[in-house]
Design a protein that fits this description.
This protein is α+β, with helices and mostly antiparallel strands. The chain is built from four helices and three strands; from the N terminus they run H-H-H-H-E-E-E. It has a three-stranded antiparallel β-sheet, with helices on one face.
Length: about 170
């Protein structure tokens, strides 16, 4: 084939069909692929920042008394979430407040620590945050994370530094 024939095949037609189909095609790609992808990335970012919040809460709860951890105005339920909200929490589009539940369970019994056996105590911290999507896309049905609020629940456990604090 000659170079002349190849060039004539590559030329556009005079009707402009390629240009006319570009607008609706790019609109479908943006609405059906790009915006949902941005929303899913924001869900991942929200989850990661809430994991950091929960990790800080469980680390602090392992150090303090049970009465301090259960206090609604204490560090675990108010102090750490308020500090987080002023920092990393700015990247989370929350629709409510942070809800934190603290509970305790018994761990393994450690023998050989004197006359009485000591038992480990595990602290459990459950953090719940309801988030809104970053870019709500107008679909006819509500899809959590795309155009409807979605809850994120993070749960962690840690061994208490002083097991006697769980009884106080």
């Amino acid at each position: 084939m000659s170079v002349e024939r190849i060039r004539t095949r590559r030329r556009r037609t005079n009707r402009g069909a390629g240009i006319a189909e570009f607008g609706p095609g790019i609109l479908v790609l943006v609405i059906c692929i790009f915006f949902p992808l941005v929303d899913l990335l924001s869900v991942c970012l929200s989850y990661c920042t809430i994991m950091v919040l929960n990790y800080n809460q469980v680390a602090q709860a392992a150090l303090i008394r049970a009465s301090e951890a259960a206090n609604p105005g204490g560090d675990i339920k108010k102090g750490i979430p308020d500090t987080w909200r002023g920092g990393m929490g700015k990247f989370v589009n929350m629709s409510g407040n942070v809800q934190t539940d603290v509970s305790y369970r018994n761990g393994q019994t450690e023998s050989g620590k004197g006359a009485t056996d000591a038992q480990d105590v595990i602290v459990r911290v459950r953090t719940t945050v309801t988030c809104n999507p970053f870019l709500p896309i107008p679909f006819f049905v509500g899809i959590p994370g795309i155009n409807a609020p979605f809850p994120i629940v993070v749960f962690q456990e840690k061994q208490m530094e002083n097991p006697d604090f769980s009884q106080q």
